[in-house]
Specification:
Blueprint lengths: L1 H31 L14 E4 L2 E4 L4 E7 L2 E6 L5 H9 L8 E3 L2 E5 L5 H39 L4 H34 L2
Antiparallel strand pairs: 1-2, 3-4, 4-6, 5-6
Helix pairs in contact: 1-3, 1-4, 3-4
């Protein structure tokens, strides 16, 4: 009996970890979505042609936010300024960088209503992908519990009790996803 409880505890811990991973991925995706405000993670997807290869912007420069609608990129190697400026412009973020000496100023233009609606749809898609990932983890957990019951390591009553716990964990995680999505949508729609 105690081995079965330990088996379920490790299963539940694994399921929780995998569900938490889905939430973390969602938060990273949301960080890359542009709102009307400047945020250093906005330039995370930018890759620069540097020294004969492509590398993330954060490996050739430092990004800071001196004001709510301005990013400042401090390029470490003066010879890389044009490449960094070009990479930001071509990243598809709708940004127009301007080089000033060793720094590049990136003003964050206000979002149009149309663009806000588009971003809200993208955020909703990210949220749905996270929910699907969590449901897949739940399904794996339920399948493992059925297998444990079939193998005789847990009773049918224990299986039902454990399934309720897995469902509760799923509901809590999906609630977290919904809350995160709601917050991001408000952030996007805020003028």
């Amino acid at each position: 009996m105690s081995g079965d409880v330990a088996d379920f505890k490790s299963l539940k811990k694994d399921l929780k970890h995998r569900m938490d991973q889905a939430v973390e991925v969602l938060k990273k995706e949301f960080a890359g979505l542009r709102t009307g405000r400047a945020h250093t993670s906005l330039l995370d997807p930018v890759v620069v042609e540097a020294y004969g290869s492509t590398m993330p912007l954060n490996q050739v420069a430092n990004v800071s936010v001196p004001e709510p609608r301005m990013l400042v990129v401090s390029v470490w190697d003066r010879s890389m300024i044009k490449a960094v400026e070009k990479a930001i412009r071509n990243a598809g973020l709708g940004l127009n960088p301007a080089a000033e000496g060793q720094t590049i100023r990136v003003p964050i233009p206000p979002l149009t209503e149309e663009r806000r609606a588009e971003l809200t749809k993208v955020a909703a898609k990210y949220g749905e992908n996270a929910r699907v990932a969590v449901r897949n983890v739940r399904r794996d957990g339920m399948d493992q519990l059925k297998k444990m019951e079939k193998d005789g390591t847990i009773s049918q009553d224990e299986q039902r009790a454990h399934e309720k716990e897995v469902q509760q964990l799923t509901d809590e995680t999906i609630s977290t996803i919904d809350e995160t999505l709601k917050h991001k949508e408000q952030e996007i729609m805020q003028v």
